[in-house]
User: Fold this.
Amino acid sequence: MTYPPKWRHITEPKAALDLMGTHPFAHLITSHDGLHATRVPLVTTTDNAGNPATLRAHLNAQNPQATGLDGSEVLVVFSGPSTYVSPHWRAKPVRGGTYDYEEVRVRGRARTNGDIAFFRTLIDDLSTLIEPHYAEAGDYPTWDTTMAPEGYIERLHPAVTAFTIDIDSVETISKLHQTFDEEDRRSVADHLMKCPRDESRAIAQKIRDQTDG
Assistant:
C-alpha cells in the first residue's frame, strides 16, 4: 500500500516550488548523529528544466546537526497551510474530524561550504526571498549584507555552518478533501472561510479553486 495515497500527491514541480518559496522556514531532519530536527530558512534553486535541484541554508555551528553534516542524507519538510476540519462542517457528517494540509518533503545529501563568499550570497538570497513577504511592516529596501556593520559578516561566519543539499527526491502532499463529493467540499470551504485563522482561509480558497475549476 502506498502512503500517502496517490490522490494526495502533486507531481507538477511548480506546486513544490511555490510552497517552498512561500514557506521557506522548514524542518531539517538528520540522523547521522542521532535523530535531530531544526527549523531553518532555505533557498531553493532549480535545474534547466525548472525542477528543484538544490537547497541552501546554514546552522549555528554549535548545533549538533552541524557536526558530521557533510555528506549526510537529510530530510527537509516544508509545511504549507493547515487547518482542522470539524465533522459538523460536512454536508454529510458521517466521519470524524481531520486536518487538511499541504507540505513538501525533500530528500537529499548535504555538502558543507566554508567559503565566506558562499555564506554572504546565501544571506543575500535569503533576504531577497523572505523580506518581500513582510513588506507591509514598513517602506524599507530589501536588506542585504552591504547594509551590515563593517566586519559583521566576517565575525559571524565562523559561528555558522553553511551548506547545500543536492536534492534526490521531492514529494508534494496536498490533502484537501479531494475524495469527498462536491457538496461536502463546498460546505467545508464555506465554514473554513468563516474562521479567523489565515491558514484556514487559505485552505478554503484552495478547495474552492479546485471545485470551481
